[in-house]
Description:
The chain contains four helices and two strands; from the N terminus they run αββααα. It is α+β, with helices and mostly antiparallel strands. It has one domain.
Amino acid sequence: MNSAKISANGQITVPIEIRRQLGLRSGDKIIFFQKKNGEIVVSNASAVAIQKAQAAFSGVAEAIGVLNDDIQELVDEVRYGKGQ
């Protein structure tokens, strides 16, 4: 179990073990949300955003007939300027 003290300004320092587990670095944002049972959960805001985007797009590529190889080709075009 890790603990943190709240400053007079309401600030806390996230313990190093928790920062490592959440993949947090200086400047990252965290989110707090409450579960139905009242438990408060702290998460890496970027990771949550990526998970939501992945869930929103899940199955879309397959539904329109785009294959993994097609996606990799598009990524390579953007990264390396292939096909320009």
